[in-house]
Amino acid sequence: MENRICQIFGIRYPIVSGGMVWCSGWRLAAAVSRAGGLGLIGSGSMTPELLREHIRKCREATDRPFGVNVPLMYRYAAELIQVIIDERVPVVFTSAGNPATWTSRLHDAGCKVAHVVSSSRFARKSEAAGVDAVVAEGFEAGGHNGHEESSTMVLIPQVREAVTLPLIAAGGIATGSGMLAAFALGAEGVQMGTRFALSAESSASEEFKRLCITLQEGDTMLALKRLSPTRLIRNAFYHHMEEAEARGASADELRELIGFGRTRRGIFEGDLEEGELEIGQIASLIRDLPSAGEIVASLVEEFNARRAALPTL
After folding, report:
1. Is 134 within 8 Å of 163 (Cβ atoms)?
2. For residues 64 and 66, what is the distance between their CA atoms, to the nearest angstrom?
3. Could you read off the pLDDT of 212-256 as tens digits, one per residue?
4. What tens digit of pLDDT does each residue of 256-280 get?
5. What is the mean pLDDT of residues 121-146?
6. CA torsion 238→239→240→243, rounded to 10°?
7. 114 bridge partner residues
8. All domains of the chain, ordered by start, with CATH?
9. Cα separation of 205 and 162, whole Å?
10. Environment class of residue 59 by beta-carbon count within 10 Å: exposed (0-12), middle (13-18) or buried (19+)?
11. Three-state SS for 269?
């Protein structure tokens, strides 16, 4: 399965675990990397010193390449980037901001850089900024999404046509069949959030994981479109936001209703009613909580089997 994604990041399989807040700590990142993929530490909920601790523990747990995801609009972004440089992390995935801000400095420090985009327009901006790869994420994904609401199947071929960069597909992918479909559309790798969030090594609460593996089609919806479109499980908090948006609540009022620490409360602490529960649409296909290594192995096995079966179609 050697291709440009494998070559750039020094990995065996072009499979990346999403850098999810409250889910992607060092244990998950190390487990994915040990299995031959690229594990990412999600720094979007971390202080600089906590990130340093996770990086060092991840390095102790694996000698394989791993990376850090940094949401560029996060208040600690500059400090997190400095920790990454100081600790010589080999790979950085940036999101939610301008990739031109840090890409050159990260390259100077020896980091490979990928940027997450929701449209071909942002993919072209990422290419102009000099990133090594782009992650094109459809709105099936959990958590924060682009305003375009482009689905993965629509987005991937448009980004493939727009840029020459190595392309990683994200949003709604949890199986080898989904990976093969993304490759058929022009992707060279996949980034999976939901599938790895629902793994043994994920740092999400057991209550959250158990709820997610019972979800049916339609149990997640996009909300908070006036602030930042976010895919959420339909719980009491979601319905509060839905009612507020329906009556025309302002962005400031929505922020006040959300308050502080709502995602931690839901995903990490297990408040399934008043917490902000972010997960992707593909959760309705997932019914187990295997190890990250088992996920990577089954993904590769199914990808190869489905690819071999294509001539019979």
Report:
1. yes
2. 7
3. 999 999 999 998 888 889 999 999 999 999 999 999 998 899 999
4. 988 889 999 999 999 999 999 999 9
5. 95
6. 130
7. 93, 133
8. 4-203+285-306 (3.20.20.70), 206-282 (no CATH)
9. 39
10. middle
11. coil
